[in-house]
Amino acid sequence: MHDHTGGRPTRRASRLGFRAAAAIGAGALLAAGLAVSSAGAQTRHALRTTLACEVTDIGGINDHSFNASAYAGLKQAAAHPPAGTKIIAKFASSKQESDYNRYINGFIALKCNIIITVGFLMTDQTWNAAVTHPKIHFAIVDNTNANPEDGTNTIDHCPGPTCKKIATNLLGLTYNTNEDGFLGGYEAAATSKTHVVATYGGEQFASVTVYMDGYAEGIAYWNAHNPTKQVNLLGWNFKTQMGTFINGSNPFNDPTAAAADTNAFLSAGASTIFPVAGADGLATNAAVKTWNSSHPTAKANVEWVDTSGCVNDPADCSIFLSSVTKGVTASVKAAALEQAAGKFKGTNYVGTLKNGGVVFIPNPHYVPAVPAAVLTKLSSLRSQIISGAIKVKT
Predict the structure, then answer these.
(1) pLDDT class for 246, splitting at 50, 70, 90?
(2) What's the helix, strand, coil split of the chain in %, to 5?
(3) Which residues does 313 contact at the CB level (< 8 Å), separation at least 6?
(4) Which residue, of 135, 238, 301, 330, is most buried by count of CB atoms within 10 Å of its CB?
């Protein structure tokens, strides 16, 4: 377990789709054997202290993706807390799914004021903890605050005699990444010299496939307007909802499987790979660079997911065509700040292109440069999605 009090971190001793109602509006470790330092928790002015604690998904804290970006949000909040307050940020980095409950319960015992869980794989565990501990505030990245209603792994599931539809102490952080996924798909299609692009996911649930749906729609839009330059998408079929996924015991951190899938796509002619799989994308980056070194006339690239690739993985910036991102950092930061200010609300936040909760980031350093006409078209498509003229399905 680690913490962050505005300085350098120091060491201490999600399953199928959005299973509940659509998100609405914008919202604002272990106990056994653990000795927690109080250094920085009090000042001579007796600042009100908020302990903000993150449980990562199994990709770990150094996934260069949504786990890392969530903790970046906590660190930013700790660096600039509301007046009269202090925020201490901590994280626990999961290695397997059995860690989820252990770390969540550890943070409950630690009396964290807000516990942020990262990823849809923790839906059941987060719901159960929120229902069991109504006085503790929770937030979950990539799901709503609604009852999972699966009836097997959740407490107070629906239907039932005391069924709760939502947990009012749980903030859902969701993102319409089909919108910027559309732009990524269009750019990949518009710049492909092989007329083949590819995507794959870590595991098949909605916070993954929403990206892939948008990506497929962007390619379909290109194909509809360029009948003589059709582009084939490998790894995902929008109509059948079938595609390529890592799966297994560690679907978001399995470099061997990710490299194998990437190499298969490259061998099939894919010019762009879009990995929606957290840390697996790092193996894709390595495979693409190896491919490029031996195929100079068939150069491939990557569109990074969740975060800005060139910021979070600068060593691979040269191969990023663009980044298809969601505002995990900003939304987690806002959640921690609202908790510290006493303004927490157990509602749901939805990130969109319009509110900046999802962002498409072209890479100006990519060589060869994306044609100006393509960039202009991407800007126009973004405006049309924001205005509703283009409705991206999922």
Answers:
(1) very high
(2) 35, 20, 45
(3) 64, 282, 285, 304
(4) 301
Coil, helix or strand for 385? Answer: helix
Which residues partner with 304 through β-bridges? 323
Question: Dihedral angle at the C-alpha atoms of 349, 355, 358, 361, nearest 10 degrees?
Answer: -160
The CATH fold of domain 177-326+357-387: Rossmann fold (3.40.50)
* Two domains, one topology: 2-175 and 177-326+357-387: yes
pTM score: 0.84
Q: What is the pLDDT of residue 153?
A: 85
DSSP symbol at 169: T
Residues present in the chain in total: 394
Instruction: Output the six-digit token pair for 153.
Output: 């792994």
Instruction: Compute the distance between CA of residue 39 and CA of residue 25 in angstroms, rounded to an integer.
Output: 38
DSSP line for 30-78: -STT-----TTT--TT-PEEEEEEEE--TT-TTSSSHHHHHHHHHHHHH
**Overall average pLDDT of the 354-370 stretch:** 95
Instruction: Return the amino acid letter for 116.
Output: I
Q: Which CATH class is domain 2-175?
A: alpha beta
pLDDT digits (tens, 9 = 90+) for 126-182: 999 999 999 999 999 999 999 998 877 888 888 888 888 999 999 999 999 999 999
* Interacting residues of 351 by C-beta distance below 8 A, sequence separation 6+: 173, 174, 175, 176, 177, 326, 327, 331, 357, 358
Do residues 114 and 55 make contact, with C-beta atoms less than 8 angstroms apart? Answer: no
Question: Pairing relation of β-strands 170-175 and 348-351?
Answer: parallel
Q: Which sequence spans correspond to the domains of the chain?
A: 2-175, 177-326+357-387
